[in-house]
Amino acid sequence: MSDDQQRPVITADPQPISKNAQKRAVKAELHAAYKLERRAREKEAKKEKKRAIQAKRAAGELDEDEEKNRQKKRRLHFGGRVVVDLGFDDKMNEKEIISLCSQLAYTYSANRNAAYPFSLVYTSLHGRTFTRLESMNDAGYKRWANTEWWREGYERIWQPPQNAEASEMPAEAEASTSAAAAPSQQDVRQTVVYLTADSEEELTELKPEETYIIGGICDHNRYKNLCLNKANESGVRTARLPIGRYLASLPTRKVLTVNQVFEILLKWVETKNWEEALYSVIPKRKFHAGGKGGTDAAKPGSQAGDPDDEGGVEEADSTVVVVEEQEVVEEGSVDH
User: Fold this and answer.
1) Residue 83 host element (H or E)
2) 316 and which of 56, 109, 233, 257 could share a cystine (Cβ 3.0–4.6 Å)?
């Protein structure tokens, strides 16, 4: 027998898994099982509710008011378009990416349930934001109705891609960019407004023929004039929400999440009243002097935000989108 045959085979021991990693793995498995169980319960509850209503209707016990409530409200499209600019993927850490993606889900949920929904477009989808959305609810974002997802930046609004394959997004998620008599690029650019708190112009009203861009970033106020500079480079108009005019006494700093800004726009379309729209969306805790820990006083007219606040996002419709319970949705420094 040769020396090679006699020599024992040495195999590398697998890398030991730390206790924390083991705990995380067990926690992830339990969470996945819980999600499946919860979805099954929700489906069964819906079926049971439907059976009960059918039984009441067959027995003539469904009164007129209940029947009216079951009928879906007629949704009137405002005509305007809101774009969420996701072109800041490289400026956020992993926790902020998770928070942003949760905010996008709440944005869709708010639009879905709105009396006057916008056309909703998400642009510059790539990088970790794309990866995170793909991992949420089996890439459920692709099934969001009446939304568009663009690989390209918002410049596509006035510069449609020459190659139809440039976007790489599913066909059902893309809107046709062809038009019989398209206006000039400059004319289209003039209808685009980037919302940023650093703008010198104050937004007074929303117009159905205009497109409003919200910066899709959760950066805890690290970057100054980020959206303003980007808008200026693109040659589009800018405007800020009239928070200082209607909520001048707001004691905390005024940074809002992406979905909160969007919900304010939805509420204004419904009420045509900025004060009502702002009060109905901005979290009530921001109206208490001292803010968090009694030290969160704002400078007069400041449009900065509360980068350390957590929460502030109303629970999304569970039948529309499921956001993982273990995630903490934080308020980021969205530049509005």
Assistant:
1) strand 81-85
2) 109
Between 258-271 and 274-281, two packed helices, what is the crossing angle to 10 degrees? 140
**SS3 at position 240:** strand
Q: Which of 260, 325, 319, 266 is nearest to 286 (CA)?
A: 260
Per residue in 80-89, pLDDT tens?
Answer: 899 999 999 9
**Cα–Cα dist 181/151, whole Å:** 25
Strand partners, 192: 211
Q: pLDDT class for 184, splitting at 50, 70, 90?
A: confident
Q: Closest by alpha carbon to 335, among 85, 99, 80?
A: 85
**CB atoms near residue 242 (< 10 Å):** 16
How far is the C-alpha of 138 from the C-alpha of 152, rounded, in Å? 23
Mean pLDDT of the chain: 76
Distance CA 156, CA 123 (A): 9
Query: What CA–CA distance (Å, rounded) separates 326 from 97?
Result: 15
Q: Distance (Å, rounded) from C-alpha 177 to C-alpha 165? A: 13
Beta strands in the chain (DSSP E): 81-85, 119-123, 147-149, 192-195, 211-215, 237-239
pTM: 0.66
Q: Nearest CA to 178 among 161, 201, 193?
A: 161
pLDDT higher than 70, residue 129: yes
Residue located via tokens 């929904």: 117
Exactly one of 219, 296, 306, 309 is catalytic; name it.
219
Our answer to whether residue 63 is catalytic in this structure is: no
Largest CA distance in the chain: 94
